[in-house]
Structure formats: structure tokens, C-alpha cells
Predict the 3D structure of the following.
Amino acid sequence: MKVDVNDWHFNSGKVPVELSFGQWIRLKLRGRVKVFEAIKRGWRGALPFFVFKCKGCGEYALDYLHGYNERLDCRLCDEANSIVRAVNAVFELELEASH
Ligand SMILES: [Zn+2]
């Protein structure tokens, strides 16, 4: 089962990832599935990486678990959110300046 996954950890965009049938079923049922463990530069040990379906954009993405609530982040949505925040910040500055 091949799934197109947005991967910014080891690639710079969408790459096909081969999943076993069992992994594909888990991805469909749970929305995430562990695909491998890897060590990134600066890490002390290997962490599991997951393919997950992003609830924001509906795309598949690759990430490791963050924080106590084991969050998986989609960079597409992170960037969209940070642009919205930046636009809001400019808007708020303009509002303050107009007083
Ligand atoms: Zn997303």
C-alpha cells in the first residue's frame, strides 16, 4: 500500500511511503501508524515516527510525537497558522496605531 506523505524530516515535501496492509488498516482506524524509528541530529536516541492523517488539511504527514499529549504536527497547517497569526499581529498593531 503506497501512501503519499508530506515529510519534512528526511525529505522536503511529498514522498511515497510503502505501508504493509496491517499498517494501512491501523492508519485508517486510528489516524496514525508507526512506520520506523530514527535519530535526528542532536537527539540522544531513536524516536518512533508516525504517518498520520492531518485533521486540518486532510493530507498524510510524517512526524514524531511531541509533548505529553503525544501531538503530531503537520507543517502545512503550522505554516498556515503562523501566517494567520502574523497577519493578526499586523492587524492588531494597525488598530493600536489608529487610536
Ligand atoms: Zn495539515
Notes: The CA atoms of residues 18 and 84 lie 34 Å apart. The two ends are 58 Å apart (CA to CA). The mean pLDDT is 90.
